[in-house]
Amino acid sequence: MEKALQQFLRAGNMTVANLLLQNYHQLGMNEQELVLFLELSSSIQAGDSFPAIDKIAGYMHCDSSQIYQLLHRLFEKKLLEIKSVTDEDGKSHDIYQFDLMYEKLFWLQRQKNQQVDQQLMATDQSEVFQAIEKEFGRTLSPIEMETIEQWFSEDHYQPELILLALREAVLSQAYSLKYIDRILLSWEKKNIKTAAQVQQLKDRQRERQLKHRQMNLNRSPDEHKPKIPLKRWAHSDDLKGGNH
Predict the structure, then answer these.
(1) Can you say how many angstroms the Cα of residue 194 is from the centroid of all Cα atoms in its chain?
(2) Per the CB 3.0–4.6 Å rule, which of 36, 48, 80, 196 could disulfide with 43?
(3) Which residues does the UniProt record annotate as the domain DnaD N-terminal (predicted)?
(4) What does the domain layout of the chain look like in residue ranges?
(5) Per-residue exposure over 181-207, b if at least 16 CB sit within 10 Å of its own CB, e if not
(6) Tens-binned pLDDT, residue by residue, of the chain (244 aa)
């Protein structure tokens, strides 16, 4: 038992990308090709960058000719390549390399992320149309729908920003897309593109209002009284007396 455990520990472990296990079919690989990749990767991670075909065939319990066929298919699918490298002693030798496969896996995942983002954006945009119709209490006209669509496609306003502008319009009882557009344009001029930046703007405005109120409270009562110009009444009386 102890000997088996020691053999198990000496055999070591290998690292496999979970994305590959989840997406190897999308890369065009079948199960046999995946197992070949795992066997080659295991040898590469163990320090043998160009394992013998007979050795891999023994691990997979198949003929060497089958391994050559699997390798050829991986070459054709541009998932595997053989490169010649020079070691520290100046000797040249071949290695198996799966960089092309990882690049394809990267782009595949990126496309999936983009699809998810597009779906989320479409959902958010739909919520914007519904929210505006709800606040306006009516169905939007084709021209209004085109205007909102331009906010997304041309102005690139985020849905959350449009919803905040809608809220500002409702608070001002201005149920108009033109009013919302003016709010969005004013934010754009201030380089405000997110809900967090809108909140920061409101916080700054609130701070200025509080400072202004505090300054008014700190002013002396005399400062609130209108200033009346003083006349030299005594001198004026002297002048009147001199006229008699």
Answers:
(1) 12
(2) 48
(3) 17-115
(4) 2-97, 114-218
(5) bebbeebeeeebeeeeebeeeeeeeee
(6) 566 555 545 655 777 888 899 999 999 999 999 999 999 999 998 889 999 999 999 999 999 999 999 999 999 999 999 999 998 888 899 999 999 999 999 999 999 889 888 888 889 999 999 999 999 999 999 999 999 999 999 999 999 999 999 999 999 999 999 999 999 999 999 999 888 999 998 889 888 888 888 887 776 555 555 555 555 545 545 545 554 4
